[in-house]
Request: fold
Amino acid sequence: MSTGLNSRKTRNTLRTTASISLQLLLVLLMTWVAFHLLGQAWSVIWPVVIALLLTTLTWPPVRFLRKHKWPPALAAALVTLLFLVIAIGTIVGIAVPVGAKSGELADQVVAGIGQLRDWLNGPPFNISDAEVNEYLNTGVAKLQESVGSIASATLTGVGSFFNGLLNTVLALFLMFFFLKDGPRFLPWLARQLPGRLSADVPIVAGRSWEALGSFVRSQAIVGLLDAVLIGIGLAVLGVDLWLPLAVLTFVTAFVPIVGALFAGFVAVIITFVTDGWVDALIVLAIIVLVQQLEGNVFQPMLQSRSLGLHAGVVLLAVTLGSSLYGIVGALLAVPVAAMVAVFWIYLREQLTDAPPPPPTVEPDPRPDPTPDPMPTSPSPPSAPDSPSSPAPA
Reply:
């Protein structure tokens, strides 16, 4: 015998589903509004993000100096100057050796182009010089047709360069102030917020700061491993510029995906024009192997351990961020995922019922009965003097 649906249960289910759906829509709407506002203020937020990343990298020496009774402003200024010296020294260390070998590199580039043409003339390609010239003329014609778009792209690139330079200078100033006044920020923030927010927001901000520092440190370790492995490979092959290329690999490791591609491309090109295509293919194989180890082993393991995220979550976050927002999304995907995890863990802590305390056994007010001691048998009484006993003399 079939039974019909219960109208009361069906109505309650629909009402609950509609309520949950409306609440989810409101949450998604507020999330979209928040991201839209962040996008409108991105020109201000981006220098702050850069400054925070740099501050997490330079905070340990400042903390060391402050523990040794250095004034906060002096410690922050010294570390900021040292950071600038190291950054400029790194750029000079890359540019000077390359500039010293620029004439030799130019000659080797011309020779490499000649070798490439000879290689294309032979089997299996068998491309004649006339065909090569035809391809070159076709390429030049296409370049001439797209002069306007190239000029506009160049102007856009120049504008982006100066915009990035301005953001870098602003980020350095913000880094100095963060290093000087950072420990006072959370107490100040707690005084500005009302009610329970004065306790919740500083806790979440402190945990997010720790997660951001863990991300920067793990990224630095990954970049150092890449630089050491690739530098060893280049040195074994005898590439002249192996040290600048290793330093370039470490620096560009902080920009996910594009940084590794750029450093690898430069290493392969320089090896090709200096040592030939065989060594260039070997360098390409070394870079591909190291990048695979970084992307599938080093980076997920280090970031999952330091940030408390699973390696799969790290990979998915980088993939999603790069597909949505390009280089910036790939750079910020992992720290954003870590801060979302921090917020979720804290929210779950606040929404979870505290476990009941263990039952305590109250002591009995009555005194504990003590067992009676074992009764001792009394000594037998002495017998009275018998009348038959002889009287004392």
